[in-house]
Amino acid sequence: MRNFFNFLKSKVFFIQIxxxxxxxxxxxxxxxxxxxxxxxxxxxxxxxxxxxxxxPDMRKAAEEAKLRYEVLDSANFNPDYPxxxxxxxxxxxxxxxxxxxxxxxxxxPSGYKxxxxxNIIQVTQRNAESMxxxxxxxxxxxxxxxxxxxxxxYYIKYKGKQIKPGDKLPxxxxxxxxxxxxxxxxxxxxxxDSE
Length: 195
Hints:
Elements: H1 2-8, H2 11-38, E1 45-46, H3 55-64, E2 68-72, E3 86-90, E4 96-97, E5 102-107, E6 114-116, H4 125-135, E7 138-150, E8 153-158, E9 161-163, E10 168-170, E11 174-180, H5 186-194
Parallel strand pairs: 2-5, 7-11
Antiparallel strand pairs: 1-4, 3-5, 6-10, 8-9, 8-11
Pfam family, one: PASTA
Organism: Zobellia barbeyronii
Protein name: PASTA domain-containing protein
């Protein structure tokens, strides 16, 4: 045990400790230099604003900025943006990122997705309007015909043509409801009396 304590006080021990510390310092220094050069430490690229760009223009701009990209589909059509243009990007424009960073894009589809017309025949006008709004359709106009059921929907029109429940229309389409006015025509009265 005494030899061990004498070794800890010897010149050889201090030289070995000094060499070990020097090797450790050199190892850390060269590791940090290597990491700095391989990760481009401190070098950033500013993300351009790709908003409203077409997909081909976006690809060209991303390659010029030395960025990778991935195009995501969009579920909702945005009428404020041109069709097939960029409506959203992650990370946003102006952020500083490393070269070769992947940017995610959401593209505006060609139009609104189609929705099924609900069965609103023989339903009151008020309930029909609620059911149509629930699926994303709007009532542009309500017209009345001589039918006994007041404010009851007898059929639906889209762009002047009669449509059936289950038909597909682009979301936000405007339809016309044809409802009864509560009166009955003389012809129908005569038919009812003759039966």
